[in-house]
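Quick question about two entries, pasted in order.
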Amino acid sequence: MRTSYSNLEIFENCPKRYEFQVIEKIKTPQSKEQFLGTILHKCLAFLYKRAPLFPHLDELLDYFKTQWKEAEKFKWRDNYEKEAYFKEGLRVLENFYKKNIPSFAIPMDLESYFETEIEDEANNTIHILTGRIDRIDKKEDETFEIIDYKTNKKMPAEANLKNNLQLAVYILGFLKKWPNLTSIDKINLTLYYLKHGEKLTGKKNEEDILLTKKRVLKNIHEIEKNYFPPIPSKLCHSCPYRKICPMWSHLYQKEKTPEETEIKKLITEYFKLKEEVDNNKAKLEEIKKQINHYAQEKNLERIFGDEGFFSYQIQQIKEYDNEQLKNLLIKTGLWTEVSMLDKKKLEKLLKKIDSSLLQQIEQLQKIKNRKILKAIKKDIEIIKSTLNEEE
């Protein structure tokens, strides 16, 4: 397969969007945010391509204004919105220029296209991973900095750098293009958040690169299954495919059929009833709590009423030494099947493993007894007749 980091990112976020955008190639209009981001990238490329005779700030801003003429193709909400985006672009470039002068470095490469191979040993195949790096700098201390410009409204936490697929892929591209130039420990990875004027910088090691290759192959294997379910998230808000996505398309239906009207009534009724049920659940728990308190205070095992009774029962709970169980499952290659010791998946696994391994797991098991109060509505007539006989 031939793919790119951006396509893999789309797939990880939502397979259904991947299907729409990458496989079916459904075109969508460029958003205003994307438009501004594209212009800012062009302006910074213009700035650094002039090295070492960098243009003056006024020249850079004039270049932005020239590119901004394309803004006429958008339907702006009003002139205020259009002016706000324009001023934001000028602000970002001015702050970037002032913050990076007089320390402008001559970039080693700009908009650096790369291709790198990912070997799938299990299937004896080679996959091609492509990408484009915004800027690569070589520092005076013989280290390198891979820089990617971001125009996000929000900055992520610095901890997110650890699992950032894009930066790890960029290292693969760098080393493929210049295999004898340097080592991984001398490559710094930077996400430059233009709207905030801040950089997040980190490093990757050999283990990170190995995990990246595994992650890429996992995504490719999933793509090859040709199954693309929608995954709703906060990213849906800005997704251009909402109107055709099965998760959202019903919201945009304009046709008002009798069936549609009836379905909406049923949904309204459902939530009304659910609210009543939830309120009753809370009341039931409070009643049960009071009955339990009374039973404990009077040292009673059963408490009778006219409609039934409450009785204490002993419930056995199985618990494991989680750390020892995890190590055993990792050793036997079964750890991934239980998904962080999910109880239902663990029970399912225990039904199909061989007896010797089952015995080892049972040795790690501890049985705890828990006393619970249970409501029982049965045999009440027998209870009443017993009372009458005694009287």
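Here is the second entry:
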Amino acid sequence: MRIFLRIHWKTVALLTICLLIFLTGAVWAQAAAGDYRLNVRREFGYNGGDDIRGNFGISVIGDLSRVSAIRYEIDEKPMATQSSGDFSYSFKTSDYANGWHTLNATLTLKDGSSRKTDARRFQFVDSSVEFGAVQGILLRIGGILLILLLVVGGSVLLTRGKFASLPLGAPRTYGFNGGGICARCGRPFSLHFWAAHFGTARFDRCDYCGHWAMVTRRSPAELQAAERAEVVAAQPDPSPAPPVDPQEEFRRKVDQSRYMDE
């Protein structure tokens, strides 16, 4: 039984090693076949997904130290051959007919072998497509600004003249949106769901003084510190009154006596 277990575990170990070698070889084969990729970047012009127009640069991503030359092709016809530097090439879409085109690159390696990148397809478009895309973007931006204007304007009208009367230093809950601290009166207040968001800040209104400003969400410790500051501000000034000069007090009484009836 022990001999069988030894043979069994040795067989399992051998099969595992063979499987790992097979998988590693498959990965190496995939890496060798796909270690170069075609890169197309915009230099000047329009790029809307697969729709492009203007000046573009084309290059190959990979270990270029093994490369001696790269031939760039469009629709299986040569565009240019680069044999020095970073092997990149610039082209204009206006030099070709509008419509769909296939770009790829054939690499000649220093060991004499060659590789071909996967092809990429782009649609070369005219100015009308570019103008339509830009117009659509501007319309979307205008719609967003209009929504923000309606939200802010509606909140201003709904909250106009309405102020909270919570006593200074009173405990409060800030809800799901958290709380902020007013830049004018220094009181912490709950951030409103209808406030307009701008990144991490929001344009919101203080519940106590009505001041509108960009407010950020504060931590619980900061909000509690602001609540304690309210209590300190509500207490009377404990500093004693300045001492009275006897001579100044005498002059004041003399001046007052001038207007007394005899």
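Reply: The CA atoms of residues 181 and 222 lie 9 Å apart. The longest strand covers residues 37-48. Hope that helps.
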